[in-house]
Amino acid sequence: MGTYVPNTREEQQEMLKTIGYSNMEELFSPLPKEVLIPKEVLIPKEVLIPKEVSISGEVLQNRKLQIPDGLSEYEVRNKMTKISEKNQVFKSIFRGCGAYNHYIPSIVKQITSKEEFVTAYTPYQAEISQGVLQSIFEYQTMICELTGMDVSNASVYDGATAAAEAVLMCAEKKRKKVIISETMNPEIIETIKTYCSGLDIQIVIAPSKEGKTDCEVLNTLVDSETGGVFIQQPNYFGQIEDAEEVGKIAKGKEAKYVISCNPISLGILKTPAEYGADVAVGEGQPLGLPLSFGGPYLGFMAATEKMMRKLPGRIAGETKDWEGKRAFVLTLQAREQHIRREKASSNICSNQALCAMTAAVYLSTMGRDGLEKAAVLSMSKAHYLADKLCELDGFELVYSGAYFNEFVTTCKGNPEHLMKRLEEHGILGGYPLKGKHAGHLLWCATEMNTKEEIHQLIHIIKEAVENETYI
Description:
Blueprint: H1 9-18, H2 24-27, E1 52-55, E2 58-61, H3 73-84, E3 92-93, H4 106-112, H5 115-118, H6 130-147, E4 151-152, H7 159-170, E5 177-181, H8 186-196, E6 202-206, E7 208-209, E8 212-213, H9 215-221, E9 226-233, H10 243-252, E10 256-261, E11 279-283, E12 299-303, E13 314-320, E14 326-333, H11 353-389, E15 406-410, H12 415-423, E16 427-428, E17 431-432, E18 440-444, H13 451-467
């Protein structure tokens, strides 16, 4: 197929002839006066690019668009392969910060790459979209089981979007203030601020103390005008927050409580529901989605029944058809087309259907035991990595609190230079932090990191430190 236009030149010519034209140029030229057509619908001649231009009396082909000739499939594959060679594929990854390198069973890709799943789109006609609706329903069910919440939507674009939408769920007429912990991922905080910049919502950042939310200060910030309190568990620095205490502070002033969580950590940590959360959100990438340059990823959202009608997007439900057979419907849709615009609290129009189904297939494949094992291995290997790093000169834990699979260490010398040194060996090391944490490294380990990889990392860092080759 050499063109995306599905008809041939002969067919195009026949269509032109039928409506009274001999070529495309005539089609877009001013119509005869006898044709009554509003002038504003005509394409002005000055915006059309002629096929030929005249330069110094010489007629030349117009190359203004600089569009090259089409390539064959073989040539396209070769060109894309050469472009992809510019990417650096790391053999070992010790970095997280919101995107994690987890094991993905081969059956996950085998199932989700089926054509009927890849090409499926939004179920506008719910009655005949039973397959898509069932996949959404199964995904929602698993997210509810994972978070302990009552209801989940069909997913949103990514974890940061989910967090911002959760803030909008909390803001009310007389409660326009939402308090966000400083220990949340900075990119999530920025996304929330962007969402709220055009709205009458006050975002207050609660300070941290020793890598966790400062509950004493938080208690003074929460008042009768606070619509919600938002923390991340585990937080950006890997620390496990005192989520129960934060929940008590929020509930004490009748504010909504939102938790952004790492879904893998829920294999061993308490669920948001057990902490008393009203809304649970997070990035679903760890649930079967590979690392990639920016996505597509998946934002999951779940809430208590009382908050159900504030969830953005759509909710699929299970029912029975007229024959009594199991069937699926769109139970709730918060799209702006379906409700009065002045009542709309979100402009989410679609969901990450394929990514959500991938998460459902992953969770089905892993099961409770598999998810728990992935969480246990991630946590134990992170602690092993931390112990080994702290044996090196100039490296020690910055925060002493409990952590899941991420932690912060000091770094002897320039962290950026050390990471460059590791990259030369095919290792993506910790993330050099900025601001008041400058000079520190945020490390991560998952079940994918072997003991041999950790030992190789330590050996390279030790050699660099002793020889001072990166300082």
